[in-house]
Amino acid sequence: MHFTRVLQHITSYEAGKPIELVVREYGIKREDIIKLASNENPYGTSPKVLQSIQLEAMSLYPDDSYYELKDGLAAHYGVDSQNIVIGSGSDQIIEFCIHALHKEGLKILHAGVTFAMYGIYAKLYGAEVIKTPDNAHNLAQFLESYQTHKPDIIFLCVPNNPLGECLESKQIEDFLAQISPDTLVVIDGAYQEYATYKDSARSINPSHFITTYPNVIYLGTFSKAYGLGGMRVGYGIAQKDIITALHKVRPPFNITTLSLQAAIQALKDQEFIHSCIQKNFEEMARYEKFAKDHAIEYIPSYTNFITYHSDKIQSSKCCQWLLERGIIVRDLASYGLNAFRITIGTKEQNTRVLACIQQYLEQ
């Protein structure tokens, strides 16, 4: 059997190691495992979501218009429901964007180290992937690459996963003013709820951006701050012509009935989201202090994770050492970095993680 040749150049996305696999491989009890590798909300989702789930609805397809969820998002962001497309996670909308613009010689541009699915989807459609020399978002380099290569799609991950850095809104506007309206600019705001809380200068207003720059699409997700990673619900916000094109490549019923119920209710409980984000940054301060106390370098983060990188720590060895003790974090060696990313957990989880890293340093 001969598969499409482009698959030869694609490395599968490396998801965080699941708890069940650690139970099987290391014989650790499930309740003793801490998973801080996939940037899930350690506080779960809003109690209102759990109360709203109607299991008897599982036999029915969802309302494929998703009107109630779209209306909620439209009110939340100050846009029209016609400006919204729903995806199975925001990464599905990344694929929609590339699919809708697919052509011979398609080019995409993104930061040196960023969300891996940009490149994976691009290669799947035979596109050329252009990366900036710097790992983080250096907009001067983006502009230089744009002028040289004339990419069809530019991805800005704001804040950036897996590094945690975040562009300011004004920086992005200055950049967009120099980009052709024929180039689609994808602003991936998967962690925007965290960035907005920490620094208003880094807050993205989708309504303003899509009105001022009609070639922009903003992506959001319910997988992070809203605690619905297992439900797989994302969304894109853009001008109607872009949304209309994306709907032509969107399969029917691309999220489930239960996912739809959950997302509708999660959006309504902003008080829960605010509480989770507040605790996230309170706990992140402990990781920052630990790093400073032990001369470990870290990237100041505007997300729900922190990335450690240091010549004192060989990331793969440290991650494996933690894994054998029931702590799952994300080794970034696959990105060519001697670094590892830790999702900010609960107070109890973080106490144990920091104690284990302390032990690793002392051995």
UniProtKB/TrEMBL annotation:
Pathway(s) the chain acts in: Amino-acid biosynthesis; L-histidine biosynthesis; L-histidine from 5-phospho-alpha-D-ribose 1-diphosphate: step 7/9
EC number(s) stated in the UniProt entry for this protein: 2.6.1.9
GO biological process, one term: L-histidine biosynthetic process
Modified residues (N6-(pyridoxal phosphate)lysine): K224
Known cofactor(s): pyridoxal 5'-phosphate
One MF annotation (Gene Ontology) recorded for this entry: histidinol-phosphate transaminase activity
UniProt keyword annotations, A-Z: Amino-acid biosynthesis, Aminotransferase, Histidine biosynthesis, Pyridoxal phosphate, Transferase
Top-rank EC class of the record's enzyme: transferase
Listed InterPro entries: Aminotrans_II_pyridoxalP_BS (IPR001917), Aminotransferase_I/II_large (IPR004839), HisP_aminotrans (IPR005861), HistidinolP_aminotransfase (IPR050106), PyrdxlP-dep_Trfase (IPR015424), PyrdxlP-dep_Trfase_major (IPR015421), PyrdxlP-dep_Trfase_small (IPR015422)
Reaction catalysed by this enzyme: L-histidinol phosphate + 2-oxoglutarate = 3-(imidazol-4-yl)-2-oxopropyl phosphate + L-glutamate
Lyase recorded as keyword: no
Annotated Aminotransferase class I/classII large domain residues: 32-355
Family (UniProt): Belongs to the class-II pyridoxal-phosphate-dependent aminotransferase family. Histidinol-phosphate aminotransferase subfamily.
Subunit structure: Homodimer.
Protein name stated in the entry: Histidinol-phosphate aminotransferase
Organism encoding this protein: Helicobacter equorum
Source lineage: Bacteria, Pseudomonadati, Campylobacterota, Epsilonproteobacteria, Campylobacterales
